[in-house]
């Protein structure tokens, strides 16, 4: 799933650095993701994975790294399956 | 519980007395001469009001956030500029109190704010960022071990020349991205301010907020440990919007009170006769109550969220909510003041009658510019795309 997230980051996070150069736990905001770009990233993730982030997940810490995004998506999928 | 309530009440009584006895008689002169409300700030210092929000264990009075908001309202009723200086200082204090994360330097600093009643100003805006507080151009540049320097061009620094200390936002380091920010506290002997403009504005004239180039050399322990993005979402932005809204409500409330006094005087002059202007006053009351409702619900929601789980304040739906408080209050407060002018007519328009509301109208017109509403709408427009319940 992290690879899929990486692809979406490439299209939507508008980072000034190469996404492939970032570790899974690298801070995306420190890498230059703006809050405006993070909204577009959230929309793209919702669209691609066909799910919706509830309000309590819509905060900076959930989108701060590839790992954190993967964890949030994992939680949502588990909830959907339950 | 009752001790806390007593403490809050005593604080509010003190601030109300300063507002009535010191801020009110000086308000017109402060406005006319665009001068710093020195008497009011001195009186607040004497009464230890500058450290009221600092916890008792660090030397402050430990009053509640609600009491702080109430104090902004009381000062706003008498002198908008005094209230704004007080509010901006308290925003910095509350931000440090909530985010010092046991950093020993900042604990010691808060003790000094309490013992010396130091006044803190902020340097958050920057030339070239388009009013976006979440981005910086200037950065903390390392010098020798443990010491850094910075130079920041600020389009406005409110009461910078009168403050003891400055809290400045900067990029963490010269190679940090614009959004990777920290706050740095500098004392007046660590920074210099070079004014880049004059100060002759329409309203809030006593805040003395010309542009400045701020230069400083500072030990790195004076960098607040928490990342500014978190500080901004959890404290600085919602607290600013709540305290500002309270003082705008205070100004609007006094404008309404003047309009009401005008109508009562007219009614007494012609007892029993129909008084069309009384209807306008009634219309105005409903405008004021909308403002009051928005301001008080914003305060309640902030206090509840802070008590439950402060991280809630970083959620987009919550950011939207406190942004909207700012937009709504900053538009409604001048509307009420203009309505009061409509009720009072020419005696409201003149600057030297008991019913003058020109200062109120001009002061509240600054509200939509303090972090421009246009800028906040841009942020909200983007958050609305993704937030689920608003």
Outline of the structure:
Chain A has helices at residues 2-12, 35-49, 66-81. Chain A is mainly alpha-helical and 82 residues long.
Task: Write up what this structure looks like.
The complex is a heterodimer of chains A (82) and B (390). By secondary structure, chain A is mainly alpha-helical. Chain A has one domain (2-16, 23-81): ACP-like (Non-ribosomal Peptide Synthetase Peptidyl Carrier Protein, Chain A, Orthogonal Bundle). Helix content of chain A is 51%, strand content 0%. Chain A contains three helices and no strands. In chain A, helix 1 (2-12) packs across helix 2. Chain A is globular, with a radius of gyration of 12 Å. With 390 residues, chain B is of the alpha+beta class. Chain B folds into three domains: 2-118, Acyl-CoA dehydrogenase/oxidase, N-terminal domain (Butyryl-Coa Dehydrogenase, subunit A, domain 1); 121-222, Butyryl-CoA Dehydrogenase, subunit A, domain 2 (Beta Barrel), CATH 2.40.110; 228-384, Butyryl-CoA Dehydrogenase, subunit A, domain 3 (Up-down Bundle), CATH 1.20.140.10. Chain B is built from eleven helices and seven strands. In chain B, strand 2 and strand 3 form a beta hairpin. In chain B, helix 3 (65-78) packs across helix 6 (228-269) and helix 8 (316-344) packs antiparallel against helix 11 (373-384). The mean pLDDT of chain B is 96. Chain A binds chain B through residues 16, 29-36, 39, 42-43, 46, 52-56, 58-61, and chain B through 134-135, 176-180, 229-230, 233, 311-312, 314-317, 379, 382-383, 385-389.
């Amino acid at each position: 799933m992290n690879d899929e997230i990486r692809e979406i980051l490439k299209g939507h996070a508008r980072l000034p650095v190469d996404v492939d150069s970032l570790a899974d736990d690298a801070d995306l905001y420190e890498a230059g993701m703006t809050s405006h770009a993070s909204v577009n990233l959230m929309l793209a993730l919702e669209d691609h994975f066909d799910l919706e982030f509830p309000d309590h997940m819509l905060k900076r810490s959930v989108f701060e790294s590839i790992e954190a995004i993967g964890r949030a998506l994992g939680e949502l999928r588990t909830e959907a399956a339950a | 519980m009752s001790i806390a309530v007593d403490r809050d009440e005593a604080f509010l009584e003190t601030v109300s007395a300063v507002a009535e006895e010191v801020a009110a008689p000086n308000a017109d002169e402060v406005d006319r001469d665009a001068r710093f409300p020195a008497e009011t700030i001195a009186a607040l210092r004497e009464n230890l009001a500058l450290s009221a929000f600092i916890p008792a264990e660090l030397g402050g009075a430990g009053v509640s956030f609600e009491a702080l908001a109430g104090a902004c309202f009381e000062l706003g009723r008498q002198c908008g500029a005094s209230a704004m200086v007080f509010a901006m200082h308290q925003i910095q204090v509350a931000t440090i109190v909530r985010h010092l994360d046991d950093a020993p330097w900042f604990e010691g600093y808060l003790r000094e704010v309490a013992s010396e009643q130091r006044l803190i100003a902020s340097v958050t805006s920057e030339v070239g960022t388009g009013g976006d507080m979440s981005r910086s151009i200037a950065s903390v540049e390392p010098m020798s071990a443990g010491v850094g320097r910075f130079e920041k061009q600020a389009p406005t620094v409110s009461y910078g020349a009168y403050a003891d200390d400055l809290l400045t936002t900067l990029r963490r380091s010269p190679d940090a991205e614009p959004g990777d920010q920290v706050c740095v506290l500098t004392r007046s002997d660590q920074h210099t301010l070079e004014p880049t403009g004059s100060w002759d504005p329409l309203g809030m004239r006593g805040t003395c907020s010309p542009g400045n180039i701020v230069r400083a050399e500072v030990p790195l322990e004076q960098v607040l440990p928490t990342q500014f993005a978190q500080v901004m979402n959890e404290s600085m932005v919602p607290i600013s919007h709540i305290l500002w809204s309270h003082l705008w409500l205070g100004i609007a409330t006094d404008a309404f009170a003047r309009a009401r006094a005008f109508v009562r005087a007219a009614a007494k002059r012609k007892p029993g006769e129909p008084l069309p202007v009384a209807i306008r006053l009634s219309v105005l009351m409903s405008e004021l109550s909308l403002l009051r409702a928005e301001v008080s619900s914003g305060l309640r929601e902030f206090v509840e969220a802070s008590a439950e789980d402060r991280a809630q304040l970083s959620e987009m739906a919550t950011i939207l909510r406190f942004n909207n408080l700012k937009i709504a209050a900053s538009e409604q407060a001048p509307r009420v003041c203009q309505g009061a002018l409509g009720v009072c007519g020419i005696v409201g328009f003149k600057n030297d009658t008991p019913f003058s509301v020109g200062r109120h109208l001009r002061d509240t017109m600054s509200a939509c510019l303090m972090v421009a509403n246009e800028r906040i709408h841009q942020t909200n427009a983007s958050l609305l795309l993704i937030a689920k319940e608003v």
